[in-house]
Amino acid sequence: MEFTKTPGWLDWHAHPSKPRFQLPPGSVDAHCHVFGPGAQFPFAPERKYTPCDASKEQLFSLRDHLGFARNVVVQATCHGTDNSAMLDALLHSNGRARGVATVRRDITDAELQSMHEAGVRGVRFNFVKRLVDFTPKDELVEIASRIAGFGWHVVIYFEAQDLPELWDFFTALPTDVVVDHMGRPDVSKPIDEPEFALFLKFMREHPNVWSKVSCPERLSVSGPRALDGERNAYRDVVPFARRVVDEFPDRVLWGTDWPHPNLKDHMPDDGLLVDFIPHIATTPDLQRKLLVDNPMRLYWSQARG
Ligand code: 0GY
Known about the structure:
alpha/beta
């Protein structure tokens, strides 16, 4: 099937630089996607955007170029609840990829079991209105209780202003809960303003809540320009991400977000994104937790099944 990209859509960076930061051995890119290819894995009819193709082979080649050992492939909304492209990536990864799926209540236990065997360890609940249609909360509660039995977790994606309304729902979830991109703080505001303070409180009061300290390219207002010629782009996001890493070093994850859906102003150089990491995880100990220990515990531990 032929698909036409959403107007203004930028393709992923074809020639990312080599990072200067050397990732610790065994590092995990814990947030990335595959798109299609559309001819093999058609995009969902209900999608809100049509991306360019971004195949598993291209993802694995980026993994090797940047120096990662493993990936966590998160189901993207352009594929709806058809997890085939993501599962195909897991099945061709030689055990080096785990997945996060999107499911509806009509999923059978046999299908969940087969996803588990392929390497799925979580489901994603998306509350970003430009990306998805509304799913009733009772359906999400039902899904959460069923996937809890597999030892999976729930990944939540929302925008900072929606946390108060979603608080009760999130805090009642029976599994580990992983927040995408720090709950999307407005980094043009001071770090101690109420929205980000509420996010920190959410993590502080709920030891089952984790955060991805990812997507500086999405959150940044100052952008990729490195002011002093060094590879230190997205400076305005650093204090926010560093605060989360410093306070919750055992509950943070990092990912490239390749192939960077819905970016229309600039497409990040993934090598530069990796060089963002030592600015937010400032010691070898914090870097090892963020990139190796934490994602391995959440996605590859036998104890979790
Ligand atoms: C991300 C962010 C976005 C998109 C999706 O599944 C998706 O379509 O997650 C976004 O547009 O903010 O994490 O990939």
